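User: If only I could read backbone structure tokens as easily as an amino acid sequence. Those tokens are not coordinates but codes from a learned vocabulary of shapes. Could you go through the record with me and say what the backbone is doing? Here is the record:
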Amino acid sequence: MAEASVEGHELAAPGGMPFRRYSGYISDSDRWTRFRFRPDDIVISTPSKCGTTWMQTIVGMLVLDRLDLGVALSSISPWLDMLLHTEEDTFSILEKQTHRRFIKTHTPLDGVVGVDSVTYITVARHPLDAALSLRDHHANMDGEQLERLRVAASGEFTGPMFDEPPEEDPVEYLRWFIDHEQEPDGAGPDDLRDYCHQVRTYWDARDAPNVHLFHYSDLWNDLDGEMRRVADILGVSVDEERWQEFVDAATLKSMRAKADVASPEAEYDLWQSPEQFFRAGGTREWASLMSAEDLAHFGQRLRELAGDAADWSLEGRSALEPD
């Protein structure tokens, strides 16, 4: 990772953080330095498997005032720095849009250029829930198609590949996730260190007026309330007569029913089963899989790596409320 500048001027990320470039097999945050923002753009930043598609769907329905976005989600809210599509194609999609744009990234917030008028929405999830969902994600992905798309758009990758985790056994995978350490490449989390690094970039920018922190568990437990928060942040008025329809349309069940357009890159045959992209939600089964010693070690590692963002990363807004 390296600090970046354009024409001698230092770039800043949201919240005034120094801009850092993240580059790897899947993404390159340098694209953000060339992207032409509009004043009312919305950037949705999450670690992978932490509610990205969910938040994109919510924002899209509110901004466009539709229960059904009508097109494949990736074609209206692309992952800007993903290398499976050319920069020209991705920028062209966004340039042609006349509605308020909402853009996806898995890059840590300090890898995204900060613009005061742009709204940055971040989402975290319990890291072990995210880890098990990431394991399912890898199993469902068509690796050969991933390679074809990457080569066609960005050429052969010549940098270091991320280490392959032991995915056959879920317990060994979780132990690997907790203790493995690899430099973040902007498409993670590849491991707990990567996850905590990204969440810390959200946490460190939390006081910026245009940076807004959300958590998967809050969406799961109070979808109505969290969607109202999103609407308020975006300045979208709520039509109470239609509101429950919007909430119902944003449930996991509803998104699974339209997985052929709701799952990211589904139109490019990236998934063996688009429906499996939404296979599970909520709290995963890690508590029943791991020993007391495993869980204690996880807690210690999380606090070492996430610092004062640890409680929020586990529990969401409830960790921020006074006792």
